[in-house]
Structure formats: C-alpha cells, structure tokens
Design goal:
52% of the residues lie in helices and 6% in strands. It is found in: Cytoplasm; Nucleus.
Length: 71
Amino acid sequence: MVRGKQKEQAREKAQKLAENRAGGKSQLEARSKGLQMKCPVCKTPAANYKVIVQHMEAKHPKQTIPPESSF
C-alpha cells in the first residue's frame, strides 16, 4: 500500500464529482414562473407583452391584438 493516501484522495475527489453531476436541478419550475402570459387564441405561453404582440402578428394576423391591460 504505497499509494494509500493518494488512492483515498482520488476516491474522495471522484465521489464529489459524481455528487455534483447527479444533483442536476430541474429548471421547469423557474421556467414556468417566467412564462406568465398566454396567447388568448392558442394559449401559447409568453414572457411578456412584447412577445405576445410579435406572436399575434406572426401567427394570428387576422385577430386584433388585445391591450396590455387585459393580461
């Protein structure tokens, strides 16, 4: 057992790296909080009114764009 100390340190380092990789946190909750508005026609989530306006102009050009106060 010439490398006893090195072997133990390598094992500890590998264990810490494995814990960091396995502990991936899901961003689904944070992402859903960021998408608060929904398109009134197709219910597509959007981050803000500006994105809703762009979406409505592109996907629903015949529909009138609701005012910002309606969201």
